[in-house]
Amino acid sequence: MSPVPALNLPALHASHSGCWLMTGGDTRSFSRGEAIMAAAETPLLMLNAPLVASRLGYPELSGLDLLELFAFVHPARFMVPTPRGLAHALNLPEAEREADVPLLLARAAAALFAHCESDEWAEREGAWSVLQSLVRHRWPWAQLLLPHVRRPERAERWVFSKLPEWEERPPRPQPAHTLLDPEAVSDRLDDLTGHGSERREGQRDYARAAAHVFEPRRERGQPNMLLAEAGTGVGKTLGYLAPASLWSQQSGGTVWVSTFTKALQRQLRRESRRAWPTDEAARETPAVVVRKGRDNYLCLLNLEDALQGGGFTGRPAIFAQLVARWAAFTEDGDMVGGDLPGWLPTLFRKRGLAALTDRRGECVYAGCPHFKRCFIERAARDSAHADLVIANHALVMVHAARAQHREEGPNARPARIVFDEGHHLFDAADSTFAAQLSGSEAIEMRRWVLGPETKAGQARSGRRRGLSARLADVASYDDMAGKAISDARDAAMMLPADGWLARIAEGEPLGAVETLLAHVRRLTHSRDESGSGEAGYGIETEAADLDGPFLEAAADAREALARLRQPLLKLTARLDALIASGEDAPDWMDGQTRQRIEGARHALSWRTDTLAAWEALLARMGGPADPDFVDWLAVDRAEAREFDIGLHRHWLDPMKPFAATVLEPAHGVMQTSATLCDRSAPSDGEGGRDPDWARAVARSGAGHLGLSPKLAEAASPFDYASQAEVLIVTDVPRGDIGALAAAYGRLIEASGGGVLGLFTAIRRLRAVHARIADRLARGGLPLYAQHVDPIDTGTLVDIFRDDPRASLLGTDALRDGVDVPGDSLRLVVMEQVPWAKPSILHRARRAAHMQQFDANRQAYDDAIVRARIAQAFGRLIRSKEDRGRFVVLSPAFPSRLLSAFPQGTPVHRLTLDDALQRLQKSVSSAQPAENEEERKG
Known about the structure:
- The relative contact order is 0.09.
- The chain has 37 helices and 23 strands.
- The strands form five sheets. It has a seven-stranded parallel sheet, with helices on both faces.
- The chain is globular, with a radius of gyration of 29 Å.
- It is an alpha/beta fold.
């Protein structure tokens, strides 16, 4: 093979095992200090500058980042952001040693430059224009790229003119009533799995059971409901897609599938192509649509503002230009979990990503010049005509709640819903239907009404405008609407403004709400007995036995909120009248203006509902407790710094509003998961582990509608007795960080990498990582970690999956929703039992559970822990070929929690040395088999 050409630029590679710098074709090992000095003198080639900066301990590091170059040349294309991933993406030889990485970087840069000169560059369109802008913003790559990007013969269109426009369509007809034939469901499943694939009876039974939710509803407010537990490996995705696709085909209706994690959304998008092949030419709209919240999508008006200045200079301006490149090639405009590489925003300040999405509900709808090309509006319209809508739990709940106040077509409201990852449904409902009156929430309300302000309190120029600017035409036409807007602006001035935290800390709050928050802080600190305040963690206290000054402040704050809500309600009424005016509507109210006013009307409804919830929360202060709710005060802290103060109200059982909002209007609902039910072993330790369906039904919301859902169970097809093993290590002292770090290091070395380490505290994770990362890297075992490496969680999992010798440390986000089949994940290590945080809310729900099920306190806590352990164990075995071990570093691991593991899984209590011997034996015994496979190959 002829040598691959390399760009003649100095290149730097830094990892936990050392630093290597290539200059003039020669590569030498450098100290961190020398590498920093070299980077300060001249721009260096590097891969993932923030990660290199973290490795060197030099946050100001900058240079020629190959990830930025890749994002320019190949927008909307993902690559694993490691030397190995870069080599694979560009079809280059891998670096055999870390010392060879700088040469690989130089070759990769040359390959990308050469691709820009090639006639096969599929993403050439728009590159020249964006590059000229990047030259003005002094992007480090710009001058180097100029000779390699040909100037087009004709002027290139701006990105906004290249995007296709969506068109309004008539509402989709009501779906036809149809009964699914069980044999037809089985046949459809065979089509999806492939007729030559292994026949799995558990999956077939599961698919037939899922057909129940697509039967015609018998009574209003009584949906067909199914709770289905399917063990890992059953194939539940295709199991419910089989009847869903068959029903959609026969009835012409829409099925919603809701997940909790973005990883499962991506998997569902891939799997759905089997049921709905990607042949959109014959359809006016896509058959499958992914829906997310508005703050996930690129806002074109924000992008235009950023490209034209809008406060974007320096690095944020460069990020905006690269996003403009991506916008021209993206499939759906999804910036979080879509085809925008997850590592791209992490190369820049986080503000860049937030500023390019609609996170404050400021959308002007039809008043936006890009309304007809808006990614969000396109997704909303496509979903109303799609066969399958893939969404998340929170969006489904919000969508169902808003549909109650809208007059839309029959497919606008989710009517047939499959909640995958159903074990998270309770927590998702808890977050969705909670109320929180905090400083950060109140200041967002102020900004929505007033718009951004200068330090003098005046409105700031720019596209992010307040309520009066968004509805200026209405105010000039309708005096009552104009007065309502003016009154709302005056009332919003009383809400917390920038600097509110500092003023409260200094004892100088401004306005009624800031004064209330100051009293919340005072009482919370004075009542804290946990010691968390001294340790720098968040603290909380019950909203009970409140003193006079607090109650007086609560009454004043409630009155201030009412003064804001009342004019917003009046404005809503005026907008309703304007929309309903029909032929008497003013001349200026064309179709687009009407849509903009309708959008403002829905935004007002959301804000007034929020204000009403805050008022209800304050009205309860000093009065009798509402048995449906749990209220408390809290000071939120991170790393010993306060970042929010507030009052919180959560439903004691959030499935009560979930049932009224989501279940009651639906026709069919399925809740499914691998861990839907708790399984506790019999008291005598013998016999089977029967699923606790009573608790699962109670947490489903069915009881609030008097429903008795159908139940289904499909056992995992895996042979856990031979594929997995649980090792409970008994000699790592609790609280000894040194011993904990040593145990992790030795386990990773014994396993040869492939370890997923799960922590219950970020502080311990960071401490362990700091002690072992360098030593492991020197042994060729890279270690990555959440909350340490400047990489988003999804990309960290991609890196871990791509390298069998890598290991990954993380917290709750890695406990479920992570799919790493094969050799990349061989060992899961849990540092201790993941007990629930003993919060006020947890205590109240535990008491309610004890009363409902005549159980003890321990039973409630154990059920939560078993579910967490079961989800963590579920990461280990993902296919019949997988083999692995699950290690718990907890000497006092209770035997009653062992039922969290699949029945038949061997469990051993042993010392760390004995556990290491078992690991080393399995690694050494697997090596000859691997060598034999290589010889046969």
